[in-house]
What does this fold into?
Amino acid sequence: MSTFLHTVQRKRWPRLVAAFLAFPPAGLLGLAAAGGRVDDPVAALVGGAVTGLVIGAAQALAGGLPQLWTVATSAGMAAGLTVGATAVGFGTGLGDLVVQGAITGLVVGPAQALVLSGRGRVIWVIAAPALWALGWLVTTLAGVDVSRQCTVFGGSGALVHSALAGLLLIRIEK
It folds into this structure.
């Protein structure tokens, strides 16, 4: 990689990581749109769409991603959270949330991958379930009150997710 490209990518990673700041307000807006809890499929669908819209827009803006990333993230979160939360019976135990996160990532990853180019798509699809599951794992272990049935993991999980996702995006988009 040329020195110029290396410098550009090195400056891009902190911006991608900073997008983690969008997760908490995205979750609050999504939770409000869902009626206060993700405790049924309609709440998950609506809450996931709103949460994904805010997260996707922040990631696209911060990371220089195409605007279609926003739409893909919103659609993926809507469908993924609906399937994931329903699959675990809207449970909030550690295992439930890790599974819910993995399922959400199974849907968000391919949706976002449609916006990426080349072989990076496959890598993103494979990594997304682990990144989303890890977000819930970190948030739960950090002691965040996950019993509120939120649409997305908290700031601690978002920071870890964003740091790793940012590194991966930079690597696969070389």
